[in-house]
Model the fold of this input.
Amino acid sequence: MKICLLNDAFPPVIDGVANTVVNYAENLHKTKDTEVIVSTPYYPGEDYSKYPYPVLTYPSFDTTAATGGYRAGYPLAVKEAGNLIAWHPQILHTHCPATSCFLARIVRDASDAPIVLTYHTKYDIDIRNTIPTELLQRETIKALVNNVSACDEVWTVSRGAGENLKSLGYQGDYKVMHNGVDFARGRSTDEEVRLVTSEYDLPAALPVFLFVGRIMDYKGLPMLVDALYKTAQQEDFRMVFVGRGTDSDGLKDKIRHFGIALDEKTEDGKIVSWPGSLPKGKCIFTGAISDRNHLRAWNTRADLFVFPSSFDTNGLVVREAAACSLGSVLVRGSCAAEDITDGRNGYLADENADSFASFLTWACTHRDELHQTGINAMNEIYLSWEGAVKTAHTAYAELIEKNRQGLLPRKKPLFDDPLFEMTADAALQYMHYMNKVRTEAPRSFGMLDNRNVLTHKIRNELEELKGQISQRLKIKE
Done:
């Protein structure tokens, strides 16, 4: 079985979906009679040769300042699409409905390999947060759904993710395929915990609450700070935030405004303390942590994982916590709470500061109960990546057989889709701009620093690939 994994993010980017692709690739690489290749936008300076499987990159634009560290992949990477076609994949598994899905559709039109798309997150929220006008938001969501609908099979990481996709206009079926975690069951040793956490103010007598993830307002973090302020009126605690994001500074300002003490690790590794006016409670910001053993140590040190997000469709970090026998408190009715039995293998709170504060206040004096819930979480909601990918591998085989028997509906070729023209025009306009200001585009594409030459070359390459695909499928031009 030859499987191509595609995503718009991959290390050095650290997020839940990038982590998913890494673990799919690693476990598929270990699977007998299976080959895997990863396709992702290029990040300057990254060493892709260190992976035991091939990583095929394609040109990207520097959008890190606007997107919190992400680069935008070029959706019409003709040469790289040709390399993937030459690899003869049997399955194309894209983990993002944007550029990587677009590239997968180009490859499918020439290779006839079916496309699986995993819908990981509520992209409509990201779109509405980043695109200024309602009309553009609607058109972008429409294009996203169009891309999803063009895939041969759609997987979602939770029922809630599937229903979100349906609410955007998707009319097809979907399968719930849970992601796993790369932590084995078990906790870090006391010595490992001490080495990772000893530089922080964490008295043994106080409960430690933990959040791991991108520091973004849409994850419910401002509401959590409101709850921490209410909790600090009655109980002492430590609230540890592991991660970084574009809303970090605003969140810290809010904490200081409330008079909650704050410690933060700066980029140079120093810990800066901001004394608070409240006698109880303290928040700690560690910054991003990429070392998985260090994350395991934090999950071991904490008494409770706090996940106030109704945005996330899966909450992989909740299962990572469970691997270390750490229970979580989650928003009632959220996707991350789908497998949680309140008071048994986790806790549920309403999505407001009063409800979270009431629970956190209780949690401060019931640490033994929290620890037992964590043990139940480890035994009941934990899923390893080995198990998750094994299930996916079986689903791949079923889809390949359906395709072999001609049982999959023939999807519209990308070049007959209005989305192609729209994407081509947008890409060309952006290339013109990049060329005009003499930034990285001419160098990235190895083209002459001339707008007319650049435009002409792209059009020729696209027409050549279109001709190859049309001939392969015997579609009349």
Residues 190-382 form a domain with the Rossmann fold fold (CATH 3.40.50.2000). The mean pLDDT is 88.
